[in-house]
Amino acid sequence: MPFGKATSIACSNIAFIKYWGNRDATLRLPLNNSISMNLDHATTITTVAFDAALNDDEIVIGDQKANAAQRARVVAHLDRVRALAQIETRARVHSRNTFPMGVGIASSASAFAALSLAATRAAGLDLSERELSILARQGSGSACRSIPAGFVEWQAGTSSADSYAVQLAPPSFWDLRDVIAVVSTTEKHVGSTEGHAAATSSPFLAERLKGLPARLARVRHAIAARDLATLGSAIEEDAIELHMIAMTSRPPIFYWSPGMVRVIQAVHHWRAEGLGVYFTLDAGPNVHLICEARDANAVAARACEIPDVLQVIVNAPGDAARLTEEHLF
Ligand code: DP6
Questions:
Q1: Out of 36, 114, 192, 314, which could bridge 44 as a Cys pair, Cβ 3.0 to 4.6 Å?
Q2: C-alpha 2 to ligand 1 mean position (Å)
Q3: Extents of the domains making up the chain
């Protein structure tokens, strides 16, 4: 049989230093390095089978046929895989998330990481971690960080060949938690891709880029030293800066909501009371509460007391994208 079927699982990730803005939007070459942690309870599982009997790609996400925008993006990624494998065969793709889509838990990261691994294996390719990361990046920038395990840095690089993610530390290195306080499960109104494109219209982007090398160094150091206070202050600064760029883009993009601000204010109170917890935000309404494992129950319990918080999802550092025999079809 020339082609097989393959299934893979990939974690989403939470950025400590954000990717916001591209220097090449088609190849998704970012303006800056970014650093993240994989999330073990926010995963996507994807099965891909190339089938000579198909006239067209068949894409199912959750229990539904992909909509036009999702389909175009997945087909473009399958085309990248077909070009690498030098095949033209169409594929059947089923994908399922363990978390709600489009709510700022970066579902595109786990989705394109899982799709990259499953599709290349199903096409008979065996890519290295670096090659997979480069491929995943072209589907969704943050997906390149979901290929290696644990704590990861995406090196912006100088071209497609050297813009990929590498591991800074394995998942077991630091028992951190990301307690995601879900404030909304409705689809976000402006996607990240649009946000990246708008970033260069903010008069503050240059200022952000100037300060990033020092902040990246602080975060690398904080991870190596397992120093939560240093990590926490750097990630809060970076999250606010991401939203400042979004809000000052032309036209402006607001991801903030009253519920999100109430959670951020609560974090300040909890910290003043001695709880070691820091927040970060993605391009959505939810708040990611970063703390040590020993404080995760206390953080989750307090978050659940805030009326705006619909649910919490507690994540430990997650693994690399990996194959599984549990096929979706
Ligand atoms: C705010 O990777 O979702 O989550 O490349 O267009 O798919 P595309 O964008 P995406 O952007 C992520 C933006 C972010 C910050 C981050 O994860 O670094």
A1: 114
A2: 35
A3: 5-171, 173-315
CB 146 within 8 A of CB 10: yes
CA–CA distance from 116 to each of 64, 88, 120 (Å)? 21, 17, 6
- What's the CA-to-centroid distance between 51 and ligand 1, angstroms? 32
- Pocket of ligand 1 contains residue 94 by CB under 6 Å: no
Model confidence over 50-103: pLDDT tens digits? 999 999 999 999 989 999 999 999 999 999 999 999 999 999 999 999 876 655
Q: Is the beta carbon of 192 within 6 A of some atom in ligand 1?
A: yes
Protein residue closest via CA to atom 7 of ligand 1: 140
Residues 6+ apart with CB under 8 A from 17: 32, 33, 34, 35, 212, 215, 216, 219, 234, 235, 238
Those residues whose C-beta lies under 8 Å from the C-beta of residue 1, and which sit 6 or more positions away, are none
Decide yes or no: CATH 3.30.230.10 for domain 5-171: yes
Ligand 1 atom with the smallest distance to the CA of 283 is 1
- Contact 89 CB / ligand 1 (< 6 Å): no
> How many whole angstroms from 192 Cα to the centroid of ligand 1?
5
pTM: predicted TM-score of the whole model, two decimal places:
0.96
CATH number of the domain located at residue range(s) 173-315 in this protein = 3.30.70.890
Q: Does ligand 1 have an atom closer than 6 angstroms to the CB of 280?
A: no
Assign residue 106 a region (left: φ > 0; alpha: ψ between -120 and 50; beta: otherwise).
Answer: left
Per-residue pLDDT tens over the stretch 127-176: 999 999 999 999 999 999 999 999 999 999 999 999 999 999 999 999 99
Burial class of residue 210, CB neighbours in 10 A (0-12, 13-18, 19+): exposed
